[in-house]
Amino acid sequence: MFLVNYSSSSESEDEKSKEVDNSTIINELPKTQTNRILLPQASSLLGKHKLKSNDDDVTDDPSKHDGRIRSFKHERGNWATYVCIPVETNILEDIQDICLSHLEENFNFKTSSEMHISLTKTIVLQYHFIESFVETLKTALQSVESFTASLNNIKVYTNAERTRTFLALKVDDLYYEKMLNILHKVDKVMKDFKLATFYEDPSFHISILWCTGDNVSLVEALVPTIMESLMERLPLHLKFDKIYCKSGFKEYNFKLK
After folding, report:
1. CA-CA distance, 191 to 213, in Å (whole number)?
2. Active-site residue flag, 205
3. Which of 63, 81, 168, 235 lies at a 20 to 30 A Cα distance from 175?
């Protein structure tokens, strides 16, 4: 089962240029035989600085983010964006610890620090479209009512590139239509902005642990044992009362009715 792969995007700050006293410079400029003023070279004003041909390029270094690989190249003005239903992390900490105790001996699993139910893939949104995208999304979600759903099963997923494996709690099928109704509203907004929509056969879930590499078959073999350890803690009931959107460092929350 494929899972949306999250990546990050950032905007670099422009260096502040030094103020130059033009009157002083002009008085010191040499003149040609025709009395034309010679303009100063850039290096005399800014200092010696070797310009790079690809100053905006960002080199992906997986070691800086736990081995995760960027799913698309960073480009200035393009912001990684996704929409989801947020989940309080502390509610699932005990379940995370129990699952991790069954996996840490053979796999390098890590706990998910930000837990949610994905409603989009991670897409690229140009900066000047962010505000209109958010307003359109807000309007589309105005009629959605909050509800409480149950989660009673553990499932294993991988991202589309098969570079990460996830252990997740799956939303019970009883609430599939409610989740699908929200997804269709979000998908419509994505289509309006000519962005990629979610998977055709979605599986709504909360990823609670992850590791690098494709270890789906190996982890699936341990799921029955993990489920036995979680019998006293499942089903878990969670209230879904808001939708969250993140674009670069900008964050938006939409309260449901």
Report:
1. 32
2. yes
3. 81
Which is nearest to 102 in space by CA: 212, 233, 227? 227
The pTM of the full predicted model, rounded to 2 decimals, is 0.72
CB 213 within 8 A of CB 146: no
Query: For residue 205, which of 82, 83, 84, 80 has the smallest C-alpha distance?
Result: 84
Length of the chain: 257
202 prior amide bond cis, ω within 30: no
Q: Which pLDDT band holds residue 78 (cuts at 50, 70, 90)?
A: confident
Q: How far apart are CA 183 and CA 101, in angstroms?
A: 34
* Closest CA relative to residue 250, chosen from 4, 6, 7, 9: 9
Least confident of 25-39, 105-119, 149-163, 199-213: 25-39
Q: If we measure between CA atoms, which residue out of 114, 74, 75, 70 comes closest to residue 92? A: 114
**Which residue type, as a one-letter code, is found at position 232?**
E
125 φ/ψ sector (left φ>0, alpha ψ -120 to 50, else beta): beta
User: Active-site residue among 74, 184, 205, 237?
Assistant: 205
